[in-house]
Amino acid sequence: MPRSLTLEQFNDFLDSTPGWIVLTSIGQDGFPHSVPLGYFRDGESIYCGVRDHTRKIRNIEANPKVSLLIESGSTMADIKGAMIQGQARVHREPGAVLALMRKAASRRGVPEADQPTEVRPGAAYIEVTPAQRISWDYGG
Predict the structure, then answer these.
(1) pLDDT for 19-60, tens place per residue?
(2) Which of 4, 13, 46, 123 could serve as a FRET partner for 133 with CA atoms 20 to 30 Å apart?
(3) What are phi and psi of 36, to 5 degrees?
């Protein structure tokens, strides 16, 4: 039987799992649309860098309810996962996007002198504010 993670363990797992998180939004056709995205956590919010005007952005603008999922492990004995259900918001304002690009670069260990100084054309960020956290740990 899996155990749930405490909030601290949940956040530590999010922070220690570099790479990708799966964002699921709901399309106009009612079907889930799941895509892997780079991410970072800042406080309670999760931020995902994206290109604007994509299907996931259109889905969020129509219905801001999303889920995020990360997992690790390769056997039932060591599978661990964290899912967030929450409300998404799209950031497009150049100042906000640049600040988030710099924060993401900093989290990846990029020195301040090498961080972005201008916004890439078409760049946006999705911010997810958690409403519910669900977790499982078969290894603990």
Answers:
(1) 799 999 999 999 999 999 999 999 999 999 999 999 999 999
(2) 123
(3) -80, 135
68, 23 in Cβ contact below 8 A? yes
Write the pLDDT tens digit of every residue in 75-110.
Answer: 888 899 999 999 999 999 999 999 999 999 998 889
The closest of 123, 125, 124, 114 to 40, measured between CA atoms, is 125
This model's pTM is above 0.85: yes
E strand residue ranges, 57-108 = 65-72, 80-91
CB contact at 8 A, 40 and 17: no
Chain centroid to Cα 107, Å, comes to: 14
